[in-house]
Write the structure tokens for this entry.
Amino acid sequence: MKVLIATGLYPPEVGGPATYSKTLETELPRRGVQVLVLPFSRVRHLPKIIRHLRYFFLVLREGKDVDVIYAQDPVSVGLPALCAARFLKKKFLLKVVGDYAWEQAVQRSGFAGTLEEFQYASLPLVPRVLRFLERYVARHAVRVVVPSKYLGRIVGQWGIAKKDISVIYNGMEELADTGNKPVLRGLVRFNGKLIVSIGRLVPWKGFRELIGMLTGMKKDFPDIKLMIIGAGPDMAELEEEAAHKDLADDVIFTGALPRDVLLRYVRLSDVFVLNTRYEGFSHQLLEVMAVGVPIVTTKIGGNSEAIEHEKNGFLVAPNDTAKIEGYVRALLSDAALRARIVAAGKRKVKQFSDERMVTETVKLLVAL
């Protein structure tokens, strides 16, 4: 069997699809499945629409001798990959890790509703078209793969039968040594308390609220810092918010970082906070647990499938800064609590192995 993986992200780009595609490229051949990866980066330099047309022709060329075309998103690579698959009469498999139409509606059209509300909402033209396209692509896949039961329920609302949805949790590979925390802190000359948050700088990640939370915490933790790792359209606005609250020296914006550097910054932190109101399944939570840092995050999307409240982390409502602050304070002040949460997190992350993910993927491919 031979599979063409059409992916929007691929190393050295960072993100879940990049990690996932690289893992499949490495591991599937060991199970007798040949893999060809076609990253969208080959056409990203072109103007919109033209890049998608060019990608369609690349899939046509590269997909002639494969058995399955496996797209990693329903729009950017999914739509051209589906068109090519139908032209070539190849089986088309789709992975959905989020709702692209909802993201665009929030960023570009001011949609303020939840992901669940979005599924049936009246929308302006552009997000309505995007919603139609992602559902059209999903409905023409032989199977839709999702990384959480939560996303499986969302995709079910797109008109996809339950039997055509496969939940395969993303795998977490064995991490290389991320370093000794005191040594890392010595290298960056930092001795205070450090909260780290990671994600694309977009409204639903809740970074603005974390900046506001820091103001109150500095009264009891004067040396505390908040490090925000990631890039995105809200960078300037968030920097301005930190400056406005007189926190320009206390909120650190790193921009996008290579994965190995990112993990070292997580390692030297005291607490990881993910204040998101939209998450299909966060691979980042698995990495943080593997590194050994306690987590405070939101009970949203697939987060509760990785985090068990008060066992291997803490779950709160999105933007509930009072509760987020309360749990962060508790973790900063109680070494025994931190140790218990970290130990439970390391046990939990073993359930999300690359071995399990690859095995389930091979089983699915063979059954198509």
Remarks:
- Residues 220 and 329 are 9 Å apart (CA to CA).
- The longest strand covers residues 2-7.
- The domain at 181-349 is CATH 3.40.50.2000 (Rossmann fold).
